[in-house]
């Protein structure tokens, strides 16, 4: 038995997780279920416990594991799932973690071409052609999406029932069905019950059958709710088909609402065929866990990765990865020696900045011209580099009075990454490109990529996408040996800060040099835009006493008036130094 190849497929949903063990021929040899598997709602301990339970019931050692998990919406979550799978199944040679819609897709379309429409507690639509060019619509969670889902049907029904109650003062058939389903006596009690379960998506979705029962009883309110939900769900399919240029798509219908509620399936199908007459619709009968197994059975997939990782010599040889002290025992040094060591390193930082003054001038001119033409400055980075970009962007409005969105910091992993590490966020170039596309970057804008190593995939993906959309691009790096592709970068600012005192800790010398460089780019641009008068901030925020007094001192010096008079004038002009000076011109 040990020489046979067994593939384990796991599909984690919001209410339960299923698994299937397949042999080399694709025959299921074992299966089972366990608790909920939404990884966005489970911490690492919870996910590990789930996978450990599955392993305890798995009768054979596995050579490959494919997992489609609810809540795994990006590469960061994919990598998290794969890391924990690797811990629980160390013998597996291939591991692939994805979203549950992907496992459902391959369950319905083993050849990799078609559309999958999911409608259960939530909703989602996913399409692909030959396992490539993936297109998704919906699946954003119940606050941002889940249109046509059980949650959506329930919410539409409840709102309609209460709207009728407000207008007519009577309880509709829809309202009575909801009262029965929740064991509530009055509409007041129903409102209290809905408020209590509002944060429980599954509990809210469980009220959908009550809406369907009311619709089956010819309640016009319920019928309108069901029809609207069905139309919005069908719209997801039409969107995906249009984007993939499918005129005769095979559409697999999946999820409890479509599999168990025939009238709803009929309504959704009718709306789809109204817009895509030649669509081929069918209920998917293959379990999603088998689709998850197919993720690692030779099916092409956009991001499939092997567990074995080869050494990246370009990264290993980067100066920022080397130890500056030549193997010196830092822990054995005195406090005084360590302070002297760090201060001595700062001299190298200054040298690196001066050596890069020519490309820095070019970058400053580029940023100035774009902002002067009412474009935007977008910083993009990951880890320390991303935080430095966010920091500089956040300081521009209070310093120079810039408009919201004029300068923005984009960091891999989103706002959470500003305060804590987001694992693997920097390794996804597609996510960097998406960040650019979602901000509608164009030819009026300049994108400044920040990467100490000069090779961060997230940053390079963003720069490539920005250049393709006509934006000007700048790369700031601290590894001169890693030259950027001229096709994606207009200006390269190499800061040769050398190796770090603590090897690889780019928050040190590289971070210091990068912060100074960003200060120069943004400050020069806003000085050129008229953001200062003399050497004083002209549009600075005056939101506290210190800033108001600073503005008064500037006004007093410029106009030759007393401090008290300057304070009075500023108060009259709502503390705007610029308006006070303009009135005297």
Outline the structure in words.
The chain is of the alpha/beta class and 585 residues long. Among the domains are: 150-283, Nucleotidyltransferase, domain 5 (2-Layer Sandwich); 335-528, Glucose-6-phosphate isomerase like protein, domain 1 (Rossmann fold, 3-Layer(aba) Sandwich); 535-584, no CATH class. 48% of the residues lie in helices and 15% in strands. It contains 23 helices and 17 strands. Strands 3-2-1-4-5 form a 5-stranded mixed sheet, sandwiched between helices. The chain is globular, with a radius of gyration of 30 Å. The termini are far apart.
What keyword list fits this structure?
five-stranded mixed beta sheet, 23 helices, 585 residues, alpha/beta, 48% helix, single chain, Rossmann fold, Nucleotidyltransferase, domain 5
